[in-house]
Automatic annotation (TrEMBL):
<dbReference type="InterPro" id="IPR007627">
    <property type="entry name" value="RNA_pol_sigma70_r2"/>
</dbReference>
<keyword id="KW-0805">Transcription regulation</keyword>
<dbReference type="InterPro" id="IPR013324">
    <property type="entry name" value="RNA_pol_sigma_r3/r4-like"/>
</dbReference>
<dbReference type="InterPro" id="IPR013325">
    <property type="entry name" value="RNA_pol_sigma_r2"/>
</dbReference>
<dbReference type="GO" id="GO:0003677">
    <property type="term" value="F:DNA binding"/>
</dbReference>
<feature type="domain" description="RNA polymerase sigma-70 region 2">
    <location>
        <begin position="11"/>
        <end position="76"/>
    </location>
</feature>
<keyword id="KW-0238">DNA-binding</keyword>
<feature type="domain" description="RNA polymerase sigma factor 70 region 4 type 2">
    <location>
        <begin position="109"/>
        <end position="159"/>
    </location>
</feature>
<dbReference type="GO" id="GO:0006352">
    <property type="term" value="P:DNA-templated transcription initiation"/>
</dbReference>
<keyword id="KW-0804">Transcription</keyword>
<dbReference type="Pfam" id="PF04542">
    <property type="entry name" value="Sigma70_r2"/>
</dbReference>
<dbReference type="Pfam" id="PF08281">
    <property type="entry name" value="Sigma70_r4_2"/>
</dbReference>
<protein>
    <submittedName>
        <fullName>Sigma-70 family RNA polymerase sigma factor</fullName>
    </submittedName>
</protein>
<dbReference type="GO" id="GO:0016987">
    <property type="term" value="F:sigma factor activity"/>
</dbReference>
<comment type="similarity">
    <text>Belongs to the sigma-70 factor family. ECF subfamily.</text>
</comment>
<dbReference type="InterPro" id="IPR013249">
    <property type="entry name" value="RNA_pol_sigma70_r4_t2"/>
</dbReference>
<dbReference type="InterPro" id="IPR014284">
    <property type="entry name" value="RNA_pol_sigma-70_dom"/>
</dbReference>
Amino acid sequence: MHDPDRFGDVFDAHFAEIHGYAAKRLGPDAAGDIASQTFLEAFRNRDRYDPARANVRTWLYGIATNLIGKHRRAEVRGLRARERLPAPGAEGHADRVDARVSAQGLRGRLAGAIAGLPDGERDVLLLVALADLSHEEVAAALGVPYGTVGSRLSRARKRVREALGGTNPMREVEDDHG
């Protein structure tokens, strides 16, 4: 991290993953910009990276989430627009699961429920759902205590379930396949 000539290794190892996370949050058009800005900011601030606080991957997710926060109004508008779209016709189980959690696949009430979450709860929920980060990694990425992650995630799940009339959209996918 502290050797500018080797920073390309960090970029090569993590760019696709950070890009994918940004695409799921904001769509493919903004993903390249967010991913590029993430690595530019990481490079500029590499002297402030503290490996005792978080691993590089987690640190990059924190930067990306902060940059996405700057695009939050557009993200919420996009989720609200997807709320009005019909459900996608995904083919297989994996496609349906991916469609449920990606920005291009969020539809109907689920998109509206996610858009209606407070910022901190939405960030935690989407870091867990889209980036598959652990509670520890989410805490490090967002700079919040571990317990805060659990509380936010619990509240976010509860709010989403309530907005969906008490249903779990993932259970519908699982029930379709026994």
